[in-house]
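To: structure desk
From: M.T.
Subject: fold request, one chain
Message: Could you run this one when you get a chance? Sequence is below, nothing fancy, just the single chain.
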Amino acid sequence: MTMKKILLLIAFAMLPFAFTNANAQNVNRADLIEDIKTLDSNIVGYFPRWRICEPDLQNRIEQVFRIFGYPKDSLNKQEIVVTAAPKETYEEPYNILLLECGSQAMVSSEVSAYMDQLEAIINGEIVYKGPYKGELSYDGEPSYCFQMLEKKVPLTDKQVEAITTFVDRPTNVDHAITLSVFNQALKIGSSGFWLEASNGNDEVGYHFWSAGESRVALVRPLYENPNVEMRRALPNLLEVRLGAAYRTTGGLENEDDLFSFVSRRQLNAGPGGKLFAGIDFNFPFHPEAGVSVNALLPFKRLTTSDIDGTTYAMAPYNSNERPVPVTPSNPEISVEGIVPILRATGQVTAFYHYWLDRNNPENYFRVDLGVSYAEVREAIFYRTDSSQSISVENVDGLQTYKPSTLEDWIYAKVEYRNQSAFPFGASVQYSNQILLGRVYIPLLNNWLYLEGKYSTPLRDAYPWEIENFFMISPLVRITI
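Reply: Done. Structure tokens follow.
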């Protein structure tokens, strides 16, 4: 992967984490200088930066900033700085990552949208020959008056923002789509709403189809972070999630499927679906810390239901293998199988965001610690002349599995994201006495990644649990 493409990946995938509403931030330049962030000199050296000193271009760029509503008092045409990605070949023009005017800045997409032909002059594509004049450039170098900035010059807050953010939920674009077999997400215009779907129940260690359920949720960030210093990293203090979970039927007989290498499913969600709700709340007095709550609650009680037995995972019933035999009160019912059903789950945790070096924020951690709850109930499967049914009513000997020891209750998760030239991420979670790990790495530019998840119980596995469950998937990002 070329250096230019790597840096473009960083710039376009990472800008959203910094800008929640650039036009609305009336930040004095002196305040920004006071809180300058510097990156490692080796990283700074990769980014060509220069100050524009051509009077006509200074006037025209400042005018564009004014037209599009940037505060006049914070603009300074004598301090117009361009941050670009290194060129792959000498002849091609630069790719502008950030254009600053005083303490205000435009990201790459805004420069393209607002600057029109002016962008081609700034990046060296067109030779500058005075006001409103130019011709095609053959060397891709700026042809106007400019001063290159030495790499010892520290990066400003906004330049750090252009290089540091996260991969899977870009916010500096109106529309975004991310797709994998684990999760799918759609950003709904500039409203800030996200529509997200996911397979499995990662919070209790059952990823992909091992949980027997999937969910759809509307995610809405609320309550803008009033802390100016932290806003670029944590733009909102409250995120609300609301949706529903539904039963999945795949993963039972997958010998001939695309996922034939994946272990078969042995757990089910019950009939009727579930309510999904959650919040992440960052403390206003210390935005790095906060609390998170997630809950999946069944819409209906588990009683007796007619089902399609071919869509349920079940274990053959053998009374000799059970400590307490299952005995229906109706002697005409013959138990053919035991159906494990995942019921209510939830977590309440405290979390903390941590950067190893605020001046070089490429190494990011999020740590969660709290309690987790998961309940699995057994039901019997039986047939009549006209139906197939599951039931928990009037049956003795069925088991309900829920937390009973301290180890069952503990929830702990550590997530790491590296935001350097080769962005990748990994997380390790302990919940329900199950270890769950996740890793993603970039494959192609800023739109294709490879994601993998692995889980295994750290105790004796329950009958429905899959030991050493591993799944990989491409992760595709599309932004507009």
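Reply (cont.): Residues 1-42, 159-166 have pLDDT under 50 and may be disordered. Let me know if you need anything else for the meeting.
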